[in-house]
Design goal:
By secondary structure, this protein is α+β, with helices and mostly antiparallel strands. It has seven helices and 18 strands.
């Protein structure tokens, strides 16, 4: 599980970056760009407010988003274009829950994995502070309801709820916990580590979302305790450690020391120096557990995906059993990898 839960005051407008999208606070000057997306009538055909494509209606929606202090713009990294929006709201500190809703994406983003990346970024952020997330969708929005059921969210039926400015709206309500993600295999993402090529792919369905250079064990693959070998087979992410610590933060025993590796990204370090350097666990940790009989001891062996101080050795087998990543790459991977994500290590 996340070991940073409840560690700081929630900021529901944090910048959250994944391989293909970045979420940032919605700004007033975003109106025209966001309305260019929202003016498509087909976005709202299954929505309780099907006329939201009209400018005067969307203006009211936008004002409520700005007032919420939880609205986010969805930016496509490839062209820095706004392609949608989503929102955190109704945070209840005592009950440790929050709602995610008012989400829409340009139709050009439908049918792929961008929506899963968006949900993953938001859920990973939310579960730092809460135990439970609700989703509110239109009762006739079958597309969104099917998507939520697919990730293991439970239906709580329909509910009338007040809306800002007066009145009520009826929503289909779903809930999800971090334990649900762990049990249900995350959000359909998987990480495939290819030992022969020393590469890793972040995949959703059949779509490769991102690729990384890695370093697995210097002494090969295996499951024996104390062997320093990388475990092969099918595993899953069972722990997420390091939210919000600076890049290069040094961990010992999975606890931040408060120190930051002075070398930063260590590409300039000579091979000789890197070979002699201590094997540091840096930046973020994704703690693996085995789900096959042969690798069932993986969690107890303390096998992680983590950043490294020996980045110039990436692409070669050099670790003590873990899978090392470039520090900027583990930041990206961590941000959109939920608990339960399937990890395949191929010999």
């Amino acid at each position: 599980m996340s070991e940073n839960l409840g560690s700081s005051t929630p900021n529901w407008q944090s910048m959250l970056s994944g391989p293909r999208i970045t979420l940032r606070p919605l700004l007033r000057e975003d109106f025209e760009s966001l309305y260019a997306v929202a003016s498509d009538p087909l976005l709202w055909e299954q929505h309780p407010n099907p006329d939201r494509y009209k400018r005067e209606v969307f203006e009211g929606f936008f004002e409520l988003a700005m007032a919420s202090k939880g609205a986010l713009a969805v930016i496509r990294n490839a062209d820095s274009k706004i392609v949608g929006s989503s929102r955190f709201y109704d945070f209840r500190e005592a009950e440790r829950d929050v709602v995610i809703g008012f989400t829409f994406l340009a139709r050009e983003c439908w049918g792929g994995s961008l929506n899963a990346e968006l949900k993953s970024l938001m859920l990973n952020h939310a579960f730092r502070f809460v135990d439970r997330v609700e989703f509110h969708v239109g009762p006739k929005n079958n597309r969104s309801q099917r998507a939520l059921a697919k990730i293991g969210a439970r239906s709580l039926g329909e509910r009338d709820r007040p809306v800002p400015g007066g009145g009520v709206t009826r929503s289909a309500v779903f809930e999800l916990t971090a334990e649900d993600l762990l049990k249900n295999g995350g959000l359909g993402f998987r990480i495939v580590v290819d030992v022969p090529t020393q590469g890793a792919r972040f995949i959703h369905g059949e779509e490769t979302v991102a690729q990384f250079q890695v370093s697995t064990s210097a002494v090969g693959v295996g499951n024996e305790a104390g062997s320093n070998r990388t475990p092969p087979g099918v595993l899953r992410v069972e722990g997420r450690i390091g939210d919000d610590v600076p890049t290069g933060t040094i961990f010992r025993g999975r606890v931040s020391t408060g120190e930051v590796f002075a070398g930063g990204e260590s590409e300039s370090t000579s091979d000789a120096d890197a070979d002699a350097a201590e094997d540091l666990v840096l930046t973020r940790i994704l703690w693996l557990g085995g789900i096959e009989r042969e690798n069932a001891n993986t969690r107890e062996r303390l096998i992680y995906l983590h950043g490294t101080n020996q980045e110039n050795l990436l692409g070669t087998p050099a670790s003590h059993g873990c899978i090392r990543f470039r520090n900027r790459d583990i930041l990206t991977l961590f941000a959109c990898t939920p608990l339960g994500t399937r990890v395949e290590i191929i010999e």
